[in-house]
Amino acid sequence: MSKFPWKTTIAVSAVLAATVYAYAQISSGGPMGMHRQMAQGGMDGSMAEMHQQMMQGRMPKGGMQGGMHAGMQGGTGMHGGMGGHGGMHAQQFGAARTTTMPGQDAFGTIQEVVQILQADPATDWSKVNIAALRQHLIDMNEVTLRAAAAERVLDNGIEIAVTGEGRTLEAIKRMVPAHVSELREIGWNAKCEDLPNGVRLTVIASESQPLAKLKALGFMGIMVQGAHHQPHHLMMAKGEFTMH
Ligand SMILES: [Cu+2]
Q1: Cα of 52 vs its chain's centroid, Å
Q2: Where are the domains of the chain?
């Protein structure tokens, strides 16, 4: 990661977008390339089995690398995703391949933000607050993975009781109402009311958000609408944003 061009001098917001794009390319390039090969029947029995073992987490690292290399050679999946990143290509296929995954997603998010701040000479370290970003990422984890969501379909919308206890409840109370504000800004008819152990989120159907879609999206599909988290995380780390 340390050789990305964003380490140079472009404006921070543009840098963030570019970095997010690059991450998306990397994370989709590998598996997609492999799946594409499988779909085209290019993967023989042993490769398919290896793929299955890998998905189940049983594949030893050394074996995987050889198998991937053999399977991907000559395919266009990886090349398409990687664009002009010659260095990345060498990392994927060369003898001195190194790892790129940071570990947990929250760890990687913080690492990316810290790298951006360190690369920017204008960073005001007296305001930087990585602890606040960490707390928010814990909130995201709680709401995404631990909150209970009881959905009820109305005649003209969907009503979701989002509940939890302790740290999960704190996260629900912070994140869901803030997200409703974001939804309203992008034109959704949404509201949020307090419950003793959480909140009640209501979204009313519209022409652009029909009832069938709201039902299909459910709690988490509604929570991921918009793209405010990425820029907000950087602002939070810079101490310019306390809640969302
Ligand atoms: Cu967030």
Answers
A1: 24
A2: 6-94, 105-237
Residues by chain with Cβ below 5 Å of ion ligand 1: 229
DSSP code at position 147: -
> How remote is the CA of residue 88 from the centroid of ligand 1, in Å?
28
Contact 26, 100 (CB under 8 A): yes
Which long-range contacts does 114-118 make (Cβ < 8 Å, 24+ apart)? 114/237, 115/1, 115/7, 116/6, 116/12, 116/15, 116/16, 116/19, 116/234, 117/237, 117/238
Q: Which residues contact 107 (CB under 8 A, 6 or more apart)?
A: none
> CB neighbours of 177 closer than 8 A, spacing ≥ 6?
192, 199
- Quote the ligand 1 centre to 139 CA distance (angstroms): 8
The model carries a pTM of 0.62
Centre of ligand 1 to C-alpha 77, Å, is 31
Whether the pLDDT of residue 13 is over 80: the answer is no
DSSP tag of 115: H
Q: What tens digit of pLDDT does each residue of 196-228 get?
A: 999 999 999 999 999 999 999 999 999 999 999
pLDDT given at position 148: 98
